[in-house]
Amino acid sequence: MSFNGRKNTTMCHLEVVRTERISPSFVRVTVGGDDLAPLVNHGYDHWFRLFIPRENGETNYNLPKRVDMLGYMQYLRMPEATRPPMRNYTVREFRPEALELDIDFVVHGDEGLATRFATRAKPGDSVALLDQGAGFVFDPSAEHHLLVTDETGLPAVAGILRDLPRDARGSAIIEVPHADDARELGAPAGVDVEWLVRDEGSTPGILALEAVKRWTLPSGTLSAYLVGEQALATGARRWLVNELGVPKKSILFSGYWRIGHGH
């Protein structure tokens, strides 16, 4: 299973409405504008390409409508001085009636363009987003769901827990840098949510991967969703397939980032 956003091409030119520090590791940036009116609310881990302002100088938001091979080449051919940086993010909440959309940014110090944007954003700042749909596809035949992530995939897992049927059963394993990053996610009553808080300076993803290796495979069919640091996503998939015999087709995994290469 893999993420596929090629069929979704809604481009929205928006402005920052407000920002909020929601926990030690997260800043929520709310964007809005009339361009959100045609945006389909895909739910679950609805994701998009986010184009943010350049830190110095003018930003050109005359962007391609797709980020396939051709569209990405068009994007790269834009003058670097005005080409907006692009990152992938998940919709935390979409309020169509208010034409507002929340984006939760992981922030660690002042590293990374997206972190600096989130911590310095102010109302009226321009952004653009290109809809990419949902990566998670609910499998009604799955009797159990396993969701595993570090903080970078928390918005995606939160959206999945919010939108799963209320009678869904399973487990969510979520690793975060700070105890105060844990929050109520509205999970179905039958889904156990385990929060793991790593020590400062320890390697991200190790606690979550260890928890996967302690996890007991329930009887019945399984759907697994594994995202976050690359070694966590690939390591958890390898364990499920090689040690527990989970079919590869039942696992969706994605390395959102890699240690040493930033978020």
How is the CATH topology of the largest domain named?
A: Elongation Factor Tu (Ef-tu), domain 3
How many helices does DSSP assign?
5
Mean pLDDT: 94
- CATH class of the largest domain, named Mainly Beta
Shape: globular
Instruction: Walk across the major sheet and give the strand order.
Output: 1-2-5-4-3-6
**Largest sheet properties:** 6 strands, antiparallel, barrel
CATH architecture group name of the largest domain: Beta Barrel
Give the beta-strand count: 11
Helix % is 10-25%
Can you lay out the helices and strands and say which pair or pack?
Layout: E1 11-23, E2 26-32, E3 46-51, H1 69-77, E4 86-95, E5 100-106, H2 113-120, E6 126-134, E7 144-149, H3 154-163, E8 169-176, E9 190-197, H4 206-214, E10 222-229, H5 230-242, E11 251-257
Parallel strand pairs: 7-8, 7-10, 8-9, 10-11
Antiparallel strand pairs: 1-2, 1-6, 2-5, 3-4, 3-6, 4-5
